[in-house]
Design a protein that fits this description.
Blueprint lengths: L10 E5 L4 H12 L3 E5 L3 H8 L8 E2 L10 H12 L2 E6 L14 H22 L5 E10 L12 H20 L6 E7 L5 H7 L4 H9 L8 H12 L10 E4 L7
Helix pairs in contact: 1-8, 3-4, 4-5
């Protein structure tokens, strides 16, 4: 039986691959036959992810995506070393729950560079000749925070709103290149990033947040499944879309 999600022979770059959603995306892509290039800051943690991957030929490419000026050159280097990309899953992100009144310009820059500018710089590199393989698909990680308000989340929400808007604009710009661009708007997912943010909340505050998710907290695998759908031929007629994967959060 044909597997519509088969990725045999494809090279997929996954950022934020050392943990959480990025790691789950990398594991699933490898299970589906892809060669996976793992990106994040810590090479030791990337090696631990590589040890989880099925198949052979996977690679690690450490990068600090908050240094946005280096990202385009780094992406071009990844393509030179591993060949044209069939897919890019950009999961790397940071989040701080903090009131706007105490938000500093440094925090703003840090969120913008990691969450948005890094995506722009990688997309810029993907436009270069022979950078994208036929049927290339980009999956960016937005968030339900782009459309639903929460106290102390303005900075993160602004960057994720930018990702959703960027998805639509770049998808049209990339049509002549036959590169599809979509994003996933996820809600509360059980990741290390959420665990760190949970430490900034009282138990009552977190339970209130959780109660707004009628299907409970999601798992990284829930998001990885959606990313695989968007990467594969199953989504060949989908571009410029924000796929809601939130357990009913925004519907409620």
């Amino acid at each position: 039986m044909r597997n519509p999600l088969d990725m045999t022979g494809r090279t997929i770059l996954v950022t934020g691959a050392s943990s959480g959603i990025g790691q789950a995306c990398a594991v699933l892509c490898a299970e589906l036959g892809a060669k996976v290039v793992l990106a994040a800051r810590d090479p030791d943690r990337l090696e631990k992810t590589r040890a989880l991957l099925a198949g052979e030929g996977h690679a690690i490419e450490p990068i600090d995506l908050s240094i946005s000026a280096a990202v385009t050159k780094w992406t071009s280097g990844v393509i030179e070393r591993h060949g044209a990309l069939s897919g890019l899953v950009h999961c790397a992100a940071i989040q701080r729950t903090i009131p706007l009144r105490v938000t500093s310009l440094k925090m703003m820059d840090e969120h913008w560079n990691t969450n948005v500018a890094s995506a722009l710089m990688m997309l810029k590199a993907l436009q270069l000749p022979r950078a994208a393989a036929p049927g290339c698909s980009v999956v960016l990680m937005s968030s339900s925070a782009a459309v639903v308000a929460a106290p102390g989340n303005s900075l993160y929400s602004a960057t994720k709103g930018a990702i959703s808007a960027l998805t639509r604009s770049v998808a049209i710009e990339f049509l002549p290149l036959k590169i599809r661009v979509n994003c996933i708007e996820a809600a509360l997912v059980d990741t290390p990033m959420v665990a760190r943010e949970r430490e900034n909340l009282t138990p009552e505050m977190f339970e209130l947040q959780l109660s707004r998710h009628p299907m409970g907290m999601g798992t990284p695998e829930d998001i990885a499944n959606a990313a695989a759908f968007l990467l594969a031929g199953t989504a060949r007629w989908i571009t410029g879309s924000a796929l809601t994967v939130d357990g009913g959060y925004t519907a409620l």
